[in-house]
Write a structure and sequence with these properties.
The protein contains 8 helices and no strands. By secondary structure, it is mainly α.
Amino acid sequence: MAWYQLTAERGDPMAQCNLASLYLHGPGGVERNDKLAAAWATRSARQGNPRCEFLLGWMYGHGAGVAQDQATARHWLEAAMASGDAVYAGRAQQELTAEAVGPAQEDSTALAPAQPGSVTARYDHGSYIVDGTVDGAATSFTVDTGTTRTIVDSMLLTACSR
């Protein structure tokens, strides 16, 4: 978490978006804070991060951390669709075509993990290993912190280089 905080404060849109997601979901002992999630998502989305454009659109559409505002939700979801990122453009399209937008729900399918093997999944997976919040196979082995960092760095670099 400290690494994301430092990098986000220096203006990195991916770190800002990761902080937004961590505050929104509250994994691994991170205290949920929808208002902080919205603040970090806004900073990232304003820099053109498609993941946070989608996330911010979802937050405005559902009133999570911000006042519910369908026009602002549509703005950010359309930005995600125009980004060219297939994953978040697709999620934004699904959100825009949903029949009704209501209060935020704990298990929103719009915020479900990316498809296994996708660049987004590799990046998200590496992100969550940093904070020790991945369930399943990723936590079924024991490695020292240095090895974990190497694995995570490799996953993040692989995701970012595609």
